[in-house]
Amino acid sequence: MTIPNRHVVHRNCTNCEAACGIEVHMEGTEIRRIAGDAQDPFSRGRICPKVVGMRGLQEDPDRLRKPLVRRGGEWLEASWEMALDAAAEGLLRVKAAHGPEAIALYRGNPGIHDAGTILSTGVLVGALGTRQVYSAGSLDTWPRFVQCTEMFGSPIRIPVPDIDRTQYLLMLGANPAVSQGSIMTAPGIVERIAAIRARGGKVVVIDPRRSETARLADEHHFIRPGTDAALLLAMIQVLFAEGLVRLGPAEGHVAGLETLARHAADFPPERVAGACGIDAETIRRLAREFAAAPSAIAYGRMGTSVQPFGTLACWGIDLLCVLTGNLDRLGGLMWAEPAAPMHFGMESGGLPVKLGRWKSRAQGREERFGDLPISALAEEIEAPGEGQVRALVTVAGNPVNTAPNAGRLARAVAGLDFMVSLDGYRNETTQHAHVILPPAGPLQREHYDVLLMHVAVRNIAKWSPAALPRGNDEPDGWACTLELARRLMGKQAPPAAAFDAAVARRLLQGALSSSRFKDTLGIDEVMASVGDAPGVARVIDGMLRLGPYGDGCGRAPEGLSLARLQAAPHGIDLGPLRPSLPGVIATASGAIELAPGRMVDDLPRLERFLAGCADAAPAMLRLINRRDARSMNSWLHNVAALAKGRDRCVLQMHPDDARARAIDDGQTVSLRSPRGVIELPAEVTTAVMPGVVSVPHGFGHRGDGLALRVAAGRAGVNVNEVSDDLAFDAPSGAIALFGVPVTVSASELRTPDAS
Ligand SMILES: Nc1nc2c(c(=O)[nH]1)N[C@H]1C(S)=C(S)[C@@H](COP(=O)(O)OP(=O)(O)OC[C@H]3O[C@@H](n4cnc5c(=O)[nH]c(N)nc54)[C@H](O)[C@@H]3O)O[C@H]1N2
Ligand SMILES: Nc1nc2c(c(=O)[nH]1)N[C@H]1C(S)=C(S)[C@@H](COP(=O)(O)OP(=O)(O)OC[C@H]3O[C@@H](n4cnc5c(=O)[nH]c(N)nc54)[C@H](O)[C@@H]3O)O[C@H]1N2
Ligand code: SF4
Ligand SMILES: [Mo]
Predict the structure, then answer these.
(1) Residue 754 burial (CB < 10 Å; 0-12/13-18/19+)?
(2) Which of 396, 399, 458, 532 has the fewest Cβ atoms within 10 angstroms?
(3) Is the minimum distance from the CB of 166 to ligand 2 under 6 angstroms?
(4) Residues 629-640 pLDDT 10s
(5) Which residue ranges form the domains of the chain, and what is each CATH number?
(6) How far is the CA of 118 from the centre of ligand 1 (A)?
């Protein structure tokens, strides 16, 4: 018997980069339950505990349904018209008095999980006319993006591990068993890793912590934080010294091989072993094994990115693959071919991407891909003078929690003249806003994983329809952003529908300029094909139709369009990764640059670091961070179903280090750096190596200004009050969150259970 009104909506979960297919079981407009979609060709029913966050966020009573306007310390609900007008007026006032550069904009991570937000934020930046743009990139991806720009010519030409066909996985500084994979969209990652071993392959994990992923591996080696670049260069030295270099598919497409060989010669395993904490014979063996494997991939993520030598580590990872013939080979690193390629203005006309086009005013920090490092923002707000930042717009981000030296940023943000947040919660950051504009909930919006499909381990196209209706007073991220941008145009603002069409046209003009149909199609025809309905869906339709599998608005009738995806609710499998050399290379020389100046010039800094490792003060510990399976950066802590169980905000410390400081398991400790001090419970465990302590980030939900009732109940402390805003990976300018020197001592406070 079928119960009337009961239906199932098939779409993706948008809580993390795995992009798992889910079934949302509905009864009318009530969510009954959410399950994995066994028919999704990519995820095949796999999900993780965080999936309950989709429903949890949608139904969370603390999630804002209406805009808020703050008058002094009081928050008032406002209509969308009133709130948008107030937001635009406040921003225009600052712009009129101090110029566009007095307004900064911060884009946070969840924006990549909403097609409407990711595709519209650039419009808002354009309407503000500012270069004071910040994002979570400097806390995350910059080293990888800079390295790919230098080697391959573009930040989005990122080779991804062909994990389903490889026989050898060397993983450094990533914990996909918890994170579910990052810059590698691979739903069900734990099973994909297990499958490598099941087919006779090998998995090796290098991490200062015996992580959840290390437990799935054949081998795990502790490594001292920040020394991966040295380890990888030593492995490369072995390849050259033992005649193991075989370029394979990259043969004839590389430049700089001799330069690289010369520099690698400076890093024999014996020289780096002590600093890394991995003996020379193991380094040699790992290099030989990697070269001998039928296919092999090296993969790194946060641990080889936001650390003092992130760019060099990312470089070493890709070099290892290139030099062993594992780039562009099945089972090696390969490039995805997304169905809806993102058009980045910087790639147009085949021009190589330029880095450092402008600098922050106060600290002189260079821009990357249109953004400045978030660590520069506090000083841009505080330092008086021409160009001082006086207003801030945040879009899906919580930098007061997630950026280093959080205490300073909190004070700076609190002193702004005006602030607007496009966000669904009143949290550490948005509590300082004058206007909060909350987009509709996660199950109320259409979605396509535009960005993630550039780094997926299989080519897939899937449309995610909204599971719940959206009323007129419930704009999604796209509508919210566009309405604010439109109002910033003042008297010249076109009507909403005309503005929406103009934005769609501009985005699709970009897609057309790099499309295989560019010589046979005009933008008018594209616009006519995608229809009149405002919203992000027609932009996705156009991107799909102009993409490599697209129907070319009728030129290739068998091809993809939004209608085709809508008729395939579980998604369309476009097959495994395929070889793409040499067409994928976008460098000025047309070759893969093996020894870019930016990396080579950073080698002396690495050598100085290695030399200094021997005489580092023994009292200093190195701080690393970790992620928890039931949270997502700072923002799933208010979902009651996830905020259960043991306390997750604890400091992990090796028994030797604990003994030396007379610290017992469970005792409250003080964690100190020059930036600040936090107090939290210690967990004494051999899971971290001696000399290293691990603390999760994203906690510390304290203060009267927050409206996070569940999260406040288990607030924890914010590790970013200790992490260093002035520690950088030099070539990328990213912040070295991991590897910060700290001290830990028994707290002067009384341990709660010791009474
Ligand atoms: N110490 C330390 N710091 C770190 C890290 C670390 O490992 N250690 N990791 C870094 C990394 S990798 C990242 S990506 C950053 C993340 O840094 P941020 O992006 O600044 O922080 P998040 O916690 O991801 O931001 C969540 C915000 O987005 C809002 N939000 C959620 N969904 C939506 C939506 O659909 N629309 C809108 N408009 N808002 C939404 C939430 O309410 C919340 O305010 O943190 C970085 N900070
Ligand atoms: N459950 C959950 N999932 C998430 C997130 C979350 O907060 N929670 N956040 C999402 C985001 S925004 C991102 S960017 C991804 C991140 O995805 P991952 O990078 O896979 O996740 P992390 O837990 O940051 O893993 C980093 C690992 O590097 C290790 N490490 C630290 N320093 C070093 C070093 O110097 N060398 C080496 N070799 N290892 C080091 C740490 O011990 C840790 O195990 O996860 C995403 N998925
Ligand atoms: S791994 Fe979990 S949170 Fe990530 S997309 Fe899949 S179900 Fe959602
Ligand atoms: Mo991230």
Answers:
(1) exposed
(2) 532
(3) no
(4) 999 999 999 999
(5) 68-141+345-437 (3.40.50.740), 148-339+581-600 (3.40.228.10), 496-570 (no CATH), 616-746 (2.40.40.20)
(6) 14
